[in-house]
Design a protein that fits this description.
Blueprint (H helix, E strand, L loop, with lengths): L4 E5 L7 H8 L9 E5 L3 H17 L5 E5 L2 H5 L4 E4 L5 H13 L12 H25 L4 E4 L4 H11 L3 E4 L3 H13 L7 E8 L2 E9 L2 E2 H9 L4 H5 L14 H10 L2 E2 L3 H4 L12 H5 L7 H20 L13 H10 L3 E8 L12 E9 L2 E4 L7 H23 L2 H9 L9 H14 L11
Parallel strand pairs: 1-2, 1-4, 2-3, 4-5, 5-6
Antiparallel strand pairs: 7-8, 8-9, 8-10, 11-12, 12-13
Helix pairs in contact: 1-2, 2-13, 4-5, 4-17, 5-6, 5-15, 6-15, 15-16
Length: 447
């Protein structure tokens, strides 16, 4: 078996790369893999090379790690590409969150939908388009694993500009498993079976089985007239370390009859009523807003932890995380298939959502690629919540690739978080965001 070449794009990330490199060096079949850290920051990139080399030595592997900022060098002969970039980093994201506040929009995360997700998508699109073309030029058989948000928008860029095998990865379903396992005191995810679908960060569980029985009936019995949020109030802290109190999730379950993604900080951004006009509902629903200051502090802590590991004063886990990139790569190499979450173009897996739009469902993964499992039709009440976002995501991709101001602003008009604004107010906010990111938007501000 030939050595596999794996590129980590944005590989200097202290938030993602230590976790992913740790997983990869614990994965059978990758004992001799060659890793390239592709990053614009040489210091950050070389730090991850040090980390990888140390892990390889400690685990008696023959892995190679090198750094480059050159795409041709990185993508020539590559087998797998893992993407964890954020164009403009936190300085750009600060505009995404703070400019909308002037228009009474108080986003909790700001990386998927709403004006924050809109701006983040537009400034990443030219980077993703360029990257897709280069990978296809130098390694047309490469497999692309994308972690960068907005997941649906940026995964779709690869499908619009090329034909590489590409999947968007997210751990949201695993959080649902965790919550249900705690509620029902289960030992394994195998005791929970779901059918689910929707768009990334706003999927819905359309069918649920707990140990083979009707999960919704069991959940109703467990709740016994109490809100879902009370049932899990002390049970769960999400992957980012933020306590998600589940009051939005609880309300949606109560009124729509289906369980959404359990991370309130994400799902509230898809709806018009929780984050706009004033902050009263943020307090009422106990929502966590992740500030730029918190993100900078998290990054500082992760950087210190990474450096401590390299010095030998901290130790990384000796088992893989629940992120699936390493397992997917292992499946392609070994031919052993498994079922996991995948963001892929809709080829009928959700029959009443637009064909070709990126949707999130379960998928069979093996050496041939990604085969999504059929969800069928989303219930009508859920469909009506999904469609505005699905159509907007497609429009954002088109606007970002074409450099079409009108199309970009139209997508913002249609976003539910802007529904309390007049059209001139929405356009003014959108233009302020575009101007703030002018250096990252060559398709709009051609010299």
């Amino acid at each position: 078996m030939s050595k596999k070449k794996i590129v980590l794009v944005g590989g200097g990330s202290v938030n993602w790369s230590p976790l992913l490199i740790n997983d990869l060096t614990l994965t059978p079949g990758l004992e001799e893999a060659e890793y390239t850290i592709l990053d614009l920051n040489p210091e950050a990139g070389r730090k991850m090379v040090q980390l990888g080399q140390k892990l390889s030595k400690e685990r008696s592997l023959s892995c190679g790690f090198n750094y480059t900022d050159n795409q041709k060098e990185a993508f020539t002969g590559v087998d797998f590409v893992i993407i964890t970039i954020t164009t403009g980093d936190l300085d750009a994201m600060e505009y995404d969150l703070k400019i909308p506040e002037d228009y009474r929009i108080y986003q909790t995360v700001g990386d998927t939908v709403g004006p924050g997700g809109w701006a983040r998508g537009l400034r990443n699109i030219p980077v993703f388009a360029d990257m897709a073309k280069n990978i296809e030029k130098y390694s047309p058989e490469a497999v692309i694993l994308n972690y960068t948000n907005p997941m649906s928008v940026l995964t779709n860029v690869f499908y619009k500009v090329g034909s590489l095998k590409t999947v968007g990865l997210c751990h949201g379903l695993f959080e649902v498993y965790d919550v249900l396992m705690k509620i029902f005191k289960l030992e394994s995810e195998e005791e929970v079976k779901v059918n689910f679908g929707g768009t990334n960060h706003f999927f819905w569980v359309t069918d649920l089985k707990i140990q083979g029985e009707d999960g919704y009936e069991l959940l109703k019995h467990k709740m016994n007239g109490r809100p879902f949020a009370e049932l899990v109030e002390d049970a769960y802290i999400d992957n980012a370390g933020f306590h998600s109190n589940k009051w939005v999730c609880s309300e949606l379950l109560d009124h729509y009859g289906f369980l959404p993604y359990v991370a309130d900080r994400h799902i509230c951004e898809f709806l018009p009523s929780y984050l706009t006009r004033d902050t009263g509902k943020i307090e009422k629903y106990k929502l966590e807003r992740t500030s730029i200051e918190q993100r900078r502090e998290n990054k500082r802590i992760n950087r210190e932890y990474t450096e401590a590991y390299i010095r030998g004063t901290e130790k990384l886990p000796d088992k893989r995380s629940r992120e699936s990139a390493a397992e997917i790569i292992c499946s392609f190499i070994s031919g052993k298939e498994f079922i996991d979450v995948a963001n892929l173009p809709n080829r009928g897996q959700i029959s009443n959502l637009p064909a070709g739009s990126i949707v999130e469902t379960l998928s069979i993964i093996n050496s041939t690629g990604f085969v999504p499992l059929t969800v069928g039709q989303l219930p009508e009440q859920i469909l009506n919540l999904q469609l505005p976002h699905i159509r907007n995501q497609d429009m954002i991709v088109e606007a970002g690739l074409e450099g079409d101001f009108d199309k970009a602003i139209s997508a913002l008009y249609n976003d539910p978080l802007c529904s309390h604004l007049t059209l001139p107010e929405t356009k003014e906010m959108g233009m302020r965001l575009l101007k703030a990111h002018e250096q990252y938007l060559p398709q709009f501000f051609k010299k």
